[in-house]
Amino acid sequence: MEEAFHATHERIFAVREPGQYLECLLWKARATAVLEKPELRARELPERLLEPETTADAYFKDIGLGPVPRYDGASLPAGTRIEGPAVIREPTTTVVVYPGSAAVVTRLGNYLLELTQDGAGSVAAAAAAAEALAR
User: 0.70 exceeded by the pTM?
Assistant: First the structure.
């Protein structure tokens, strides 16, 4: 290792001092490990859909400000389809379901978002959702 240092030092700095004291101030290492993949398990989900926790005011470009249903994500069973506009609260995030779009709860407790072609819902779908919320 000492000879490799002197050869590299001479190549870079054009100086070789073989009798000098060497001190290693920085060591770097790289390790690679192959780990087993964790097993994916379905989380404990309730069997029936609970009603929205409450409503919350939300603003959407096409329908403006208005109350939307707010769901507790932990209370949604697998297969639940939430039509937008809606809000789903999780411990680490909030899922906003836009008007004309939908969120489906997977068996693993994730959300599959179904977006409309324009990504925000059609004006007609948004208007219908606004009317439904007003009732």
Answer: no
